[in-house]
Specification:
Blueprint lengths: L1 H42 L3 H12 L3 H4 L5 H13 L1 H13 L1 H12 L15 E2 L18 E8 L19 E5 H4 L8 E6 L4 E10 L8 E4 H4 L10 E8 L8 E4 L8 E6 L5 E8 L2 E4 L8 E3 L9 E5 L4 E4 L9 E3 L8
Parallel strand pairs: 2-6, 3-5
Antiparallel strand pairs: 1-14, 2-7, 3-6, 4-5, 4-7, 8-9, 8-15, 9-12, 10-11, 10-13, 13-14
InterPro entries: Expansin_CBD_sf, Expansin_CellWall, Expansin_EXLX1-like, RlpA-like_DPBB, RlpA-like_sf
Keywords: Membrane, Signal, Transmembrane, Transmembrane helix
Protein name: Expansin (Peptidoglycan-binding protein)
Length: 341
């Protein structure tokens, strides 16, 4: 029994020293490794730049890691950036793509073409739709070629029965035979006239030609006649048609001399197409005024004098004008005009 117990205890004392030696060697080895690691970390930047470069290439939070780097790490970071062109090129590509949509978006909003400006209009003025058919035309109808004779007269300053006043040197004017003049309905109409020779002119009707002028006949100013033939011809066979000219200014309104709030005459000047009606706004709504031979629309009881006006051409298009005060014998522009046909 004793021998067996003694035999078990003896190996225990022999193994204690054997285990202590490896433990001491392990401690020494750890200390040596730590020393080497410290020497390597303080002497160069070989390991740390590799970590920074990998972070930048991986797209991680490099912005947070760079400010926290030591001076040595900063220098190594710049080295790794120059040594990694693929990373730098991808970063610059990302920077150039991002601003591009921003730059292109701004011009799109500012460079959009503005809508075409609308025609100028007077205060309260408006232009109605332009029907195609001249349903309100009288004897002179668009699209109809009229046969007639041209004669010549001394038109002086260009004024005539329509009372438009002097034409300011524009002598391409004419007087319409009284039948087609139709109680001033032809006033202001533009007429295209053709001679057999091929010569052609455009005149504006400012006057009437009484008998013996026959239907179809137009008495031209001497200046206008001379463009078709020599004045010595006297009478010249022509054809003529109603014209809706391209270039005209805005319509103007003029109150007749002696007009007031109790009586007024209203004239429309510079209209592109012949007029059919003029209405004034009364207490009961729109009221049509009669048209005199001298091309004024008369309000004998003062209704609408100085108020809103509605003007209609032979095509049925309407211009509504407001803000025209009663100023006798003063031409007041409206800023609106009838459509071309």
């Amino acid at each position: 029994m004793k021998a067996t117990k003694h035999a078990v205890q003896r190996p225990w004392h022999r193994r204690g020293p054997a285990r202590g030696v490896p433990l001491a060697l392990l401690v020494v080895g750890v200390l040596v490794c730590l020393g080497v690691a410290l020497l390597v970390g303080g002497g160069g930047g070989g390991a740390r730049p590799a970590v920074v470069a990998a972070t930048a290439a991986g797209g991680a939070t490099s912005g947070a890691s760079v400010p926290a780097a030591t001076p040595a790490a900063s220098a190594s970071a710049s080295t790794s950036a120059s040594a990694s062109p693929s990373v730098a090129s991808s970063a610059s590509a990302s920077a150039s793509v991002t601003p591009s949509p921003a730059r292109s978006a701004s011009p799109k909003s500012t460079a959009a073409p503005a809508s075409p400006a609308a025609p100028p209009a007077a205060a309260g003025g408006s232009v109605g739709a332009a029907p195609a058919a001249a349903t309100l035309a009288g004897r002179i109808k668009p699209g109809v070629t009229n046969q007639g004779v041209a004669t010549a007269y001394d038109a002086a300053d260009g004024n005539g029965s329509c009372l438009f006043g002097p034409t300011g040197g524009d002598m391409m004017v004419a007087a319409m035979n009284y039948t087609d003049y139709e109680s001033s309905k032809a006033c202001g109409a533009y007429v295209s006239i053709h001679a057999a020779s091929g010569a052609a002119i455009t005149v504006r009707i400012v006057n009437d030609c009484p008998a013996p002028c026959a239907p179809g006949q137009i008495d031209l100013s001497q200046q206008a006649f001379a463009k078709l033939a020599d004045l010595s011809v006297g009478r010249l066979a022509i054809t003529w048609t109603l014209l809706s000219p391209d270039s005209v200014g805005p319509v103007s309104i003029r109150y007749k001399t002696g007009s007031s709030q109790w009586w007024c005459g209203i004239q429309v000047i510079g209209h592109r197409n012949p007029l059919a009606e003029l209405e004034v706004r009364g207490a009961g709504g729109w009221q049509q005024l009669p048209r005199a031979d001298f091309d004024y629309f008369l309000s004998t009881d003062g209704t609408g004098c100085g108020g809103e006006l509605r003007i209609t051409d032979i095509y049925g298009q309407q211009l509504t004008v407001d803000g025209i005060t009663v100023q006798p014998d003063v031409v007041q522009p409206t800023g609106v005009q009838f459509a071309k046909h």
